[in-house]
User: Fold these one by one.
Assistant:
Number 1:
Amino acid sequence: LSTDRVRAKPALSPQVSFMLGQNAIGLGVWGLFFPNGVHRFLGLTGSPQTTQLLFGAREMVTGIGLFSDPTRSGVLWARVAGDVFDIAVLSTLNRRSNPQQSNARLALGVVLAVTALDVITATRMTNVKRNCD
């Protein structure tokens, strides 16, 4: 493991944070440019423009923020807030009347796992002392 711009033990958290940022950019592209695909996959109803804004743009902004500097704890906490929103939405889609319930349940499980990573990484990045300002 290599050290990076934070004074900490071998810095795994920034590497995880960078990976989370890359993943967020991919999800942002899906939400921004293919909102109808998101709707079909999850069984969402409503406006694709809402999906572009609340899902795609949010993921893209946090992804770029972490991609440019994976040690930014504020961006990580913004991801956690977005995860809470996603969990709420996906929980409402996890119902028998949704023809895509299995996809919504899969997405919910993934978001719960990523939320745990986001919280751990955000906590770690909040508690380190930066040595470059």
Note: The mean pLDDT is 86.
Number 2:
Amino acid sequence: ARHVEVFPNAVDPALFRAYSNHSGLREPNCVFLGALRPWHGVDAVAEGWRLLGREAPSLLVVGDGPGRTALEAVGAKVIGAVPHREVPALLASASIGLAPYAADAPGYFSPLKLFEYLAAGLAVVAGAIEGVREVVGHEHVVLASPGDPVALAEAVRTLAADEPMRARLGSAGRELVAAHHTWERRARRILALSYRLQPAIAQ
């Protein structure tokens, strides 16, 4: 192939617009969205919460899987899988989104939860895997070493204590996805590439 283009996941910001104001939250709290599989960094979250101890914010887990027991053991509220239409309101109940990933996570994947956290205006702690670093920088999220519970705990501790930082990251994340990472933009790019290919296909 002379040209290869990879399309990351994206989000429909309109689904989250009505829920993206977190100013009414009385204290910082966290959310993890997704299947509780090892490469999603569930063990790092559980160990991070043990390290935080009494400093740990409340943690809502939306999803299910093998990591459920470890998360419940550190006080997480695990509600299991829900219909996607319920996700925006659940994210609005939190102020910090977690996407830590594991040190041995797959070499590349594009985390849908990252885009939804950003659209919801959450301050995000994300493992610095390739698919994350390609779309966000330190001005949008707090990047941490994948699978590192110490780094995760420190990032959560910092965000929990700094409301202006949470607000700044939340605003920057919403602006980023609205400008660059919507499904409409992805579709327009795919169409543009397909039109460019038409003469070559005709030959």
Note: Strands lie at 29-33, 58-62, 77-78, 96-99, 123-127, 142-144.
Number 3:
Amino acid sequence: MILIIGVLAGLAAGLARSWLGKRPYHVPQVRLAWLVFVAFIPQYVAFVLPQTRNHFPDAWVPTVLVGSQLLLLVWVLINLKVPGIWFLGLGLFLNLLVISLNGGLMPIRPELVERLIPQAAEGFWVVGERLGVGKDIVLTVEQTRLWFLSDWFLLPDWLHYPMAFSIGDVVISLGAFWLLWAAGADHPKLVEVSHEQENQAK
């Protein structure tokens, strides 16, 4: 949800920037975009797809989560010169760091779990264990390494979308915003080509 907000806001800002500057919006040119899709597939199978997530072994979850994050960081390094990508990569790194230091899952505090799913039956979640079929593990602040990088933010109640997120998620969203916003700027190489064409026309 946080990433979607960043993408939509960045796209809107980038299009407005190009329109105000009377120049075309240039879709960001990234290399090996298929790596993002490949990295997403294991998480989709483990956490999203109903037919598989309910049967996905808990023991495999850390490998899937850490592995997919590492693959995304490889993609970031390949595209490091693209505006906003390095910031997006910083968010990925922060998430990977706290996940790796806490057993391969993203820590979330018991207080937040109670607010997210107040109707949960007794025993549905237990401190020290994975939360449902998601990527989180329920840990107290004292049990969590680098707790300030864990899922400890909540979306505002008026959004009616209960979800916890981390500082890393925010940084990723800002990186996506930057990437799409920058696409509405002047591109030196394209400007040079345009000037050459104008000179030739004269």
Note: DSSP finds eight helices and four strands in the chain.
Number 4:
Amino acid sequence: SSDFNSAMESVGDAYLVAATSDNTRMAYQSDIDHFLKTGRALPTTPLYIVSYLKECAETLNPRTIKRRIIALRQYHVFSGLEDPTKAPNVIKTMQGIARLHGTPRKQAAAIRLKDLDLMVAYLEENPTTINIRNRALLLLGYFGAFRRSELAPLTWDQMSFVSDGIVIKLMRSKTDQTGQGAD
């Protein structure tokens, strides 16, 4: 099967499957689907991967291509097959693509304080329960530098009010996917 999730589950170890987040598995499956839509098949060879890389080089960001290579690697590893992505010609082709087409990462601009003031003022004009909650989330997110994914699951019992402010115990975050927690 050329399904990434089937390859992962064929290992039969729930811990190995859990080691990769659902979002990563979905991205890998999308990457494998893209590879297959170009007329190639799995398992594959270094020669087919190099031709795929060259085909993608002009239109895709090198970071996207690298993730697609990682998806192919994971597919082969979890299927118990030899990893064709480690071949010297695959590695060198990827390095060449990165040198010729690499661009700096585009990071989303942070919200400016004056824009935050406008949003908070708008929510204060109509103090419904939802607007009060949204105002608190906006302020907490901004001043705590939290991601949306960290704010959304936040519960009251994760907060402790101390003399200097609030201590928030994050159960999981993008940088703590194993749930060790951070204050």
Note: The chain has nine helices and two strands.
